[in-house]
Amino acid sequence: MAREEKAKISVTCSCLTVLALLTGLAADQSVPPKPENLSRSLRGEQEANQQLNTSALNTALAFEPYRQLATRTTAEPQVRHNILFSPLGLASALALLSRVSGSESRSQALEALGLAANSTEQSVEATISALTDLQHSLALQRGEGGGGAQRAESEAGAGSEAEAGATLGVDSGEADTGDRAHVDDITEGRNGTEDRVHPEAQLRVWSRLGVDGKLSQDYDSFLSRPPPAGPPAFNTSFDTLMKDLEDSDKLELNNYVYFKGRQPFERRHTVPRSFQLNATTSVEVAMMFRDDSAEVMMLYDTNCSATVVKLAYTDRLASLLLLPKAELQPLEDCLSDGRMRFWLSNVKPGRAEIRFPKFHLRKSYSLESLLRSSGVSSVFSDSADFSGISQKTLKLVKAPHEVMLEMEETKSEDGGRPDIMLDFFVPPRITFDRPFMLIIYDDLTGLVLLVGRIIDPTDV
Fold first, then answer.
1. In the beta sheet, which residues pair with residue 256?
2. Does 62 or 100 have the greater pLDDT score?
3. What count of other Cβ atoms lies within 10 Å of the Cβ of residue 142?
4. How far, CA to CA in Å, does 100 sit from each of 26, 241, 350, 385, 394?
5. CB 230 within 8 A of CB 154
6. What are the pLDDT digits (tens) for 251-282?
C-alpha cells in the first residue's frame, strides 16, 4: 500500500513538473527560453542593436546619398556610371566626427546617426558603442563551409603609434593563419592563386583622422597591410595628432571600406557572356552560374518592375540583387528603407537558374558630397568646430570615402555533384546581363552596409 502511494505521489509530481513547463512556454510563446550558456557577448550584441535606429541610418546614409548620386547622371543617360558606396563606412566616419567636433558640427553628425538633437550623452555613447560593436561583429563574420562561424582574436597594438590619431573602425584579421593571410586572400582572384580560408564574406571598415600633409595610409596600403585583430578602438590620447596640429590647422579624414563576397556559384560554371550596357552597346564579362538544385529567396515586385533575389554569405551578411525588367531608373525611384523592408518580408523560396557577373569594383567619393544630402555640412565648412581635439580653428580639407567590392564564386568543390532526381520542369532563368542594383546588408538588424548600381561590370 505504501509503495502504491509513493508511486501516485511520483506520478503527480511528474505531471506537475510537465504542467509547469508547459505553462511557462505558453506564457511567452514568442520568446523561447534562453539557454543558460548563452554567451555574454551575444546578449550584449542583442542589447546594443536596440540602440541603433536602423531605419534612420538607412534613409540618411544609404538611400538619400544614393538618390543624390543617381540624380547627377539622370540628365545625361549616355554617361551614366557605376555607383558604389558604404553607409556603414559613412556611419563610422560620422561616429568619429561626433567625438572630435562640437556645437553644430557635432549635432549634424549625431542627427545623421539617427539621434535626436536633445539626446543625452548617455544615449550618444550607447549608440556609438552599439555601432562600433556591430562593425566588429560583422568584420568577424566568416562563411567557411557555410557555417558562418565567428572568430574572436585579441587586439595587438590597438591605438599604438602606428595607428596614432583619432581612430574608429574595424580591421579584423586571421590570427591563426599568419600575417599574410589577409593579403593573400585579397589578391586571390587577381593573380589566380588560391587563398587560404575561402570565406564567403570579408568586411573591413576603417576611419582615421590625421593632419593633412603628414604621412597617411592610402587605400592601397589599407588593402595590403595585415589588419589588426580585436574590437575597433577609439584612440582618445591624440598624442601624435596633437603634436602634428602644432604646425598645421588642416585635417584629413580617410574613410575606407572593403567587402569581398563569394556568391554561391561554382567556378567551373563561370563562362564569358555578353552584358548589355544599353540598346546599342555590350561588353563581355565572366558570368557565374547557379543551377536550380537549391532553393533561393526571391520575388517579383510589380510596383518597381524588378526581380529581387536574396543571397546569404554568412549567418548575418547577405545581399539583395535587384534586376529591373527594363530601365534602371524606375527601380532607383522606388528605392527606400520601407521598400527594402517590404522585399525582405516578402521574398519566398523558389527554384531558378541564376547568372550573375563576376566583377571587382572600386569607387571613390568625397565624404562631403555623400553627407550633404543627410544634413551634414558644417563640419566641412570654414566655421567647423573641432573643439573636441583643439581650441584653435581647424579645417577639414580632405575626406575621401573609398570602397572596393569583389564579387566572386565560392571555392570549387572536389568530386562530382550529388545525384539529383530528374525533373522535366524547365526552371525560370534570372540573368543579370544588363544594368542592375545590389544592396549588401546585415540580416540581423537590416542595416545597409554597401549599396550600388552596376552599369558596366568591366569598368573598375
1. 206, 402
2. 62
3. 23
4. 50, 12, 49, 9, 11
5. yes
6. 999 999 999 988 778 888 899 999 999 889 99
